[in-house]
Design brief:
This protein is an alpha/beta fold and 397 residues long. The chain contains twelve helices and 16 strands. The protein is 40% helix and 21% strand. The longest helix has 24 residues.
Length: 397
C-alpha cells in the first residue's frame, strides 16, 4: 500500500516537473511594433536590424536571457496610428509579450502610449522623437532609448546658437515637427540667437516655393548672420528645393540635424554647414560601436546607419533590464530601469527616473565632402556628452 502511494505521488509530481521544465524553456517574447512598410520603411529596417544586433550583442550571441530564448515578434503599423494601437493590444493580450519596442512615427507612438498603461506593460519607444511621448502624453510604462525633440534641439542650439544669429525654421506640421521647433526655441534662450519666423508644412509636401518665399521674406532684411533651420524627416528634399531659390542673394545660410546615409547625399551642396546629429558611425569611439560597424559591414556591406544604432541600444537596454532584474515581471523591470545606466554604440545612456527618457550624447558636426564617399560626411566637431545636455524633464512620476 505504501509503495502504491509513493508511486502515485511520483506520477502526480511528473506533470509538475515537466511543467517546470517547459516554463524554464518558454521564450521571453518581445514585440517589435514598427512601420515596416510605408514612407519611413528605410528607418524601420535600420531599427529592426539594429534591434536584432543589440539582442545578439547583449546575450553574447546566444539570443537567450535568464536561461530562456528570446523571441521577437514583428508587427507592421504601416504608419497608421489606429493600426499601431491595435497591434500593441494584440501583442500584450494575445502574444503575451514581456515588453514591446517601437514605433518609428511619433504620431503612431502617441496612439500606442495609453495601451501600455491599460495593459500594465512596458513600451520601449525607439525611434519616435516627439517630446510629448515621455512628456505630457507619457506614463510610467513608457521608456525611450531614442533621442527626443529636446535633445535634438539642445544639441543644435549648441551648434548654431550664437549672439546676433537670426533664424527661420521649416518643419513638418505634426507632433515631430512642432515639438522639435518648440524645444529648439526654448533651447536657444540665453544664446543670443533669435527665431524670427516659423514655417510648418504637411508631411508630404514636395513644392516648397510658397513656404520658402515666406521664410526668405522674414529673413532678408535682418542684420547679422541669417540661418534657415530645417527639422525634417522623410522625403521632399526641402533643403534642395530652397537652395534652388537662391538664398545666397540674401546672405541666407542653412542648418539642420543629422540624417540617414541616403539623405546625407542631399547634403553635398552644403559643405561647411553645421548642426548636431544623433549618430554617425565614425563619431562614437567605443568598443560596442566598433563591433557594430564591423558586423554591419560584414553582414550588410554598408556602415550602420542613424537608426541602426538606436535599434541596437533598445535591444541592449531590454536584455540588461531583464538580466539585472532577474525577472520578467513589469514592476521589477520598471524598478530596475529607472535610473539604469547601460552602454550602447553611442556610449553610456541613462534612463532618467523622472520621465524614463534616455539621456545620451549628441554630436556637433560640420559637413565635408570626400572623393569616393557617395554621401556628405558630418565630420565630428565635438561630442556633446549627456552631462552637458540640459534636457527638460518631460513627465514627473
Amino acid at each position: 500500500m505504501r509503495l502504491t502511494t509513493v508511486f502515485k505521488s511520483a506520477l502526480m509530481a511528473l506533470p509538475l516537473a515537466f511543467a517546470g521544465q517547459t516554463l524554464a524553456e518558454d521564450p521571453i517574447k518581445i514585440a517589435h511594433v514598427y512601420g515596416k512598410t510605408g514612407p519611413l520603411e528605410a528607418y524601420a529596417k535600420q531599427s529592426h536590424d539594429g534591434l536584432m544586433l543589440g539582442l545578439e550583442y547583449a546575450t553574447g550571441g546566444t539570443m537567450e536571457v535568464l536561461g530562456r530564448p528570446i523571441e521577437v515578434i514583428e508587427k507592421d503599423t504601416q504608419l497608421d496610428p489606429a493600426q499601431g494601437r491595435s497591434l500593441l493590444e494584440e501583442a500584450y493580450a494575445d502574444d503575451e509579450v514581456t515588453l514591446a519596442i517601437g514605433p518609428v512615427s511619433s504620431g503612431v507612438a502617441l496612439a500606442m502610449l495609453p495601451v501600455a498603461q491599460e495593459y500594465g506593460k512596458i513600451l520601449m519607444v525607439e525611434p519616435a522623437v516627439a517630446d510629448s511621448i515621455t512628456g505630457e502624453n507619457g506614463n510610467r510604462y513608457i521608456f525611450r532609448t531614442g533621442r527626443n525633440s529636446s535633445q535634438d534641439a539642445v544639441a543644435n542650439a549648441v551648434a548654431i546658437g550664437k549672439p546676433g544669429v537670426k533664424i527661420a525654421t521649416l518643419a513638418q506640421d505634426y507632433a515631430f515637427g512642432r515639438d522639435g521647433i518648440t524645444a529648439f526655441r526654448n533651447a536657444l534662450e540665453g544664446s543670443g540667437a533669435e527665431i524670427v519666423h516659423e514655417e510648418y508644412v504637411p508631411t508630404d509636401t514636395n513644392d516648397f516655393t510658397a513656404a520658402g518665399q515666406r521664410i526668405f521674406d522674414a529673413l532678408k532684411d535682418e542684420d547679422g548672420e541669417k540661418i534657415v533651420f530645417f527639422y525634417w524627416a522623410g522625403g521632399g528634399n526641402p533643403m534642395g528645393k530652397l537652395k534652388a531659390m537662391n538664398p545666397e542673394r540674401y546672405d541666407i545660410e542653412f542648418a539642420t540635424g543629422g540624417n540617414i546615409l541616403s539623405a546625407l547625399v542631399g547634403y553635398k551642396p552644403f559643405v561647411g554647414m553645421e548642426g548636431a546629429t544623433y549618430y554617425y558611425y565614425e563619431s562614437p569611439d567605443n568598443d560596442i560601436n566598433d563591433w557594430l560597424v564591423e558586423q554591419h559591414l560584414d553582414r550588410f556591406g554598408t556602415p550602420p546607419d542613424f537608426f541602426t544604432a538606436g535599434g541596437m541600444s533598445a535591444g541592449i537596454a531590454a536584455v540588461e533590464a531583464l538580466k539585472r532584474s532577474g525577472d520578467t515581471d513589469t514592476e521589477a523591470l520598471i524598478d530596475t530601469m529607472e535610473g539604469m545606466r547601460f552602454d550602447t554604440p553611442k556610449g553610456e545612456m541613462m534612463f532618467r527616473a523622472e520621465d524614463h527618457q534616455a539621456l545620451q550624447s549628441m554630436y556637433h558636426f560640420r559637413i565635408k565632402v570626400e572623393d569616393g564617399v557617395e554621401w556628405a560626411i558630418p565630420e565630428l566637431v565635438r561630442e556633446i556628452p549627456l552631462e552637458e545636455m540640459d534636457i527638460p524633464v518631460g513627465r514627473d512620476n
